[in-house]
Design a protein that fits this description.
The complex is a heterodimer of chains A (291) and B (482). By secondary structure, chain A is α/β, with parallel strands linked by helices. Helices cover 44% and strands 20% of the residues of chain A. In chain A, the strands form three sheets. A five-stranded parallel β-sheet of chain A has the order 7-6-5-8-9, sandwiched between helices. Chain A has a three-stranded antiparallel β-sheet with strand order 3-4-10. In chain A, strand 8, helix 9 and strand 9 form a beta-alpha-beta unit. The radius of gyration of chain A is 21 Å and the shape is elongated. By secondary structure, chain B is α/β, with parallel strands linked by helices. Chain B has 15 helices and 20 strands. In chain B, the strands form five sheets. In chain B, strands 14-15-16-13-12-17-18 form a seven-stranded mixed β-sheet, with helices on both faces. In chain B, strand 7, helix 6 and strand 8 form a beta-alpha-beta unit. The chains are: A alpha/beta (291), B alpha/beta (482). Chains A and B meet through strand 4, helix 9 and strand 10 of A and helix 9, strand 18 and strand 19 of B.
């Protein structure tokens, strides 16, 4: 007798839990003519919940040691490696050839390894001790921008999304990934990986939905610090930039193809703020200047 | 109350204003020479300490803005663009040297035009302006080292709009890194304080900088908007209020223009019971009364640990009584003139609001000159976190004091603001300092000091205090594509 297959319910990932959208809406995801899943169509309220989770998770995430963050990113790669086949199958469902799917999954896993390594190194690269002309110890370090919304280019199923999340959380931010409904499957499976990698709930939140519906709420939200936009829609980008002024959000435009093909720490830097600290140096018997 | 300042009567020590030359009027500095405006409309620039006219300044038209941008573009695509980093740097070194040579004249004009005490113009504004050019001069041929693995390139023509609180210094902050990175510049000083920028134009001529590399045009906010809105500008650098910063952010949406914004602030200055209280009191005074409180990073919210609150306030009031308010040109003056009648009105409005909100008001007795715009150092105690004087940027010598009991409480209160430009911490305990400095959301944190600036030290804010940094290696990123 033929065994009946268990179909997967693709849900959202908010605050370390997998709820359905509060709106009860779904999107019938088709692979060619085959109905694959009823994917959640996230609402404005889902986004607000995700933002709240992201905000409360961010402080503790940044307070972990860089070494610990590095190990958690590495752990994500370990967990992904173990579910390689599932990612490949899903990418094929989303239109990839088998060879392309395999290459993308392997590259995505390696991307985690790459940024795991940066967690406890970028600070040394981008920080400075500043030789001020007075008796002060003065240094500048990077701190996370805070809550960052990531908008991958629609159609990017895995690598384009990992390439945004990894540097964002390596930098100590918490994120909300706003994934379009064009290829929403792998990102949800990715969130299951994240969930089992010792990543605290709320550091990464994943919403699948209509960008045109969600973005107008995201861009005016007063507690979002930055939006990273990898899409090509000039009008959409412009309206994000217009609304960003509400609370002086940082809008970071990245090129999706470039993001996928290159590895460097500059997006970590862009999703960080420079903080400079001054402290006097005692003058008794001292030289009269800093470093 | 007895006037403490009477114990400290000092003989007048006026700076000699004849050491500075101010022309009766100034044209626009475009393409290496002073040129008349298309329309030739002028407005008067007055000394806020006596309301006398210092000079007449040109109100630029859109045609003038266009001419300046064209000159900058021509220079970028021409001589300046072809110059090596080393040669660019040498021009900047020259400018730094000439500023040093003319430091006295520049300081006098800065104090006459803006109302700030001559001691501050002489010891802070002008030397820092020279130092800024000197610092960035050296970067011009070393840019590759600042961005490992990348090949940085200039952005093109930068449009820069600066405020009236540090006129020459802000011009230096904007022009020096832009030029070091190979860009050309159209800059507008604030309408109230154009004179030192125009003097800088003369210095740039004297340094034989190629024509069009720096264009300095004057006028009101409309002119700034025209620069920012000009389609051939590649980069916007703005220092000013958060309100205007937001308008700018909106206005460049959908364009290719890159921007850095250095906006308002409402800095928390936090005093713990184990701080050296006399030093802390000096830090409070320097934090809020420096430059009449016209400082975006001013320590305008004071948080004092409850156990020492009364003692700190007692010492602070005593110290306030010794501050000398008056003639900016007197070398003994601590607090000069408020920059303009409009700003004085804003400050007085907020003082009225503070009183209405129920906070306790204090000003030391001091005699103010009859003419000009003045505000004595002002203190509000018994302030609530929700009071407007504790939330909104006043940009004047007005301090709002609150007390606190625990570290967690004061961090929460300090961070509870849309701004994030600067903060101060006073304690003798090193580990406490780093606990605070790592948790305060602000771009610049002064521990056991306040309001210190240096060209090597990046400056700029978190959150609604803007984005991008000025100063230091990090300041290069604002003017490069990498």
């Amino acid at each position: 007798m033929k065994r009946l297959e268990i179909l997967k319910t693709y849900k959202l990932y908010i605050g370390g839990k997998f709820p359905r959208t509060e709106s009860g809406r779904f999107h019938a995801y088709m692979s060619g003519k085959k109905h694959v899943a009823n994917v959640c169509r996230a609402s404005r309220k889902d986004f607000r919940d995700a933002e709240g989770s992201a905000r409360s998770a961010q402080v503790d995430w940044w307070r972990k040691t860089a070494y610990n963050r590095s190990q958690i990113l590495y752990r994500i790669a370990e967990m992904m490696e173990g579910r390689k086949e599932q990612f490949i199958e899903e990418l094929i469902l989303q239109g990839h050839t088998k060879a392309k799917a395999l290459a993308e999954v392997e590259k995505s896993i390696d991307r985690w390894i790459y940024h795991a390594g940066w967690c406890d190194k970028y600070q040394q690269l981008f920080s400075s001790v500043n030789p001020v002309a007075s008796a002060h110890f003065n240094f500048s370090v990077l701190e996370p921008t805070g809550v960052v919304c990531l908008v991958p280019k629609p159609g990017e199923a895995l690598l384009g999304i990992v390439s945004m999340i990894a540097p964002a959380i390596a930098a100590g931010n918490s994120v909300i990934v706003l994934c379009d409904l064009k290829s929403p499957l792998s990102v949800i499976t990715l969130s299951e990986v994240l969930h089992t990698s010792d990543l605290p709930g709320g550091v990464v939140n994943v919403l699948t939905g209509e960008l045109s519906e969600l973005l107008p709420h995201v861009s005016v939200h007063m507690d979002v610090n930055a939006i990273v936009y990898a899409g090509d829609d000039k009008e959409q980008l412009k309206s994000l930039q217009l609304d960003a002024a509400t609370n002086v959000k940082r809008i970071i435009k990245v090129d999706s193809a470039e993001l996928n093909s290159t590895e460097d720490p500059y997006l970590i830097r862009e999703m960080s703020e420079v903080k400079t600290t001054w402290h006097p140096i005692e003058q008794i018997g001292a030289s009269g200047s800093g470093y | 109350m007895k006037k403490t300042s009477e114990h400290w009567k000092l003989a007048p020590a006026p700076e000699d204003r004849s050491q500075a030359t101010i022309a009766s009027h100034y044209d626009l500095f475009i393409d290496g020479k002073f040129q008349k405006s298309a329309k030739g409309k002028r407005f008067k620039s007055i000394n806020p300490a006596d309301e006398k006219v210092l000079s007449e300044i040109t109100e630029s038209t859109d045609a003038d803005v266009d001419k300046a941008v064209k000159a900058a573009r021509k220079a970028y695509e021409g001589e300046w663009g072809k110059l090596s980093g080393k040669e660019r740097g040498k021009y900047l070194y020259r400018i730094a040297r000439i500023i040093q040579e003319k430091a006295r004249e520049l300081a006098i004009i800065e104090s006459l035009d803006g109302g700030k005490p001559i001691r501050e113009s002489r010891d802070i504004d002008v030397p820092l302006a020279a130092a800024h050019f000197f610092y960035y001069a050296g970067w011009a041929d070393k840019l590759d080292y600042a961005f490992p693995g990348r090949k940085p390139r200039p952005l093109g023509v930068a449009g820069q709009v600066i405020p009236w609180n540090f006129p020459l210094l802000m011009a230096a902050w904007k022009i020096a890194p832009a030029l070091a990175c190979g860009n050309t510049v159209v800059i507008k000083p604030a309408e109230n304080t154009s004179l030192t920028a125009l003097k800088l134009a003369e210095i740039i001529q004297e340094a034989e900088l190629p024509p069009g590399v720096v264009n300095i045009i004057t006028g009101h906010g409309k002119v700034g908007a025209a620069i920012i809105g000009h389609k051939d500008i590649d980069k916007i650098a703005f220092t000013g209020s958060t309100g205007v910063g937001k308008l700018i952010q909106r206005s460049i949406a959908g364009t290719h223009k890159k921007a850095t914004l250095e906006l308002g602030g409402k800095a928390a200055n936090i005093i713990f019971e184990d701080a050296t209280l006399d030093e802390a009191v000096e830090g409070i005074v320097n934090g809020i009364y420096f430059n009449q409180g016209h400082v975006c990073c001013a320590g305008s919210r004071l948080y004092v640990e409850e156990s020492v609150h009364d003692e700190v306030i007692r010492r602070l009031k005593h110290r306030m009584g010794t501050l000398i308010v008056g003639d900016p040109m007197d070398k003994n003056t601590d607090i000069g003139a408020i920059n303009s009648s409009e700003q004085l009105e804003t400050i007085q409005k907020y003082i009225g609001i503070g009183k209405k909100e129920g906070a306790s008001f204090y000003q030391p007795a001091c005699s103010l000159p009859k003419k000009g715009f003045w505000c004595p150092p002002t203190l509000f105690t018994d302030v609530a976190q929700s009071n407007r004087i504790a939330q909104e940027e006043i940009f004047g010598p007005v301090l709002a004091v609150q007390s606190f009991r625990t570290v967690d409480e004061v961090i929460k209160k300090a961070n509870n603001t849309p701004y994030g430009l600067s903060a101060g911490v006073w304690t003798d305990k090193g580990s406490k300092i780093f606990n605070l400095t790592s948790q305060l959301h602000a771009g610049v944190i002064w521990a056991n000091t306040f309001n210190k600036f240096d060209p090597t030290s990046p400056f700029g804010g978190f959150k609604e205090s803007g984005f991008g940094r000025e100063g230091g290696m990090h300041g290069l990123a604002a003017y490069l594509d990498f």
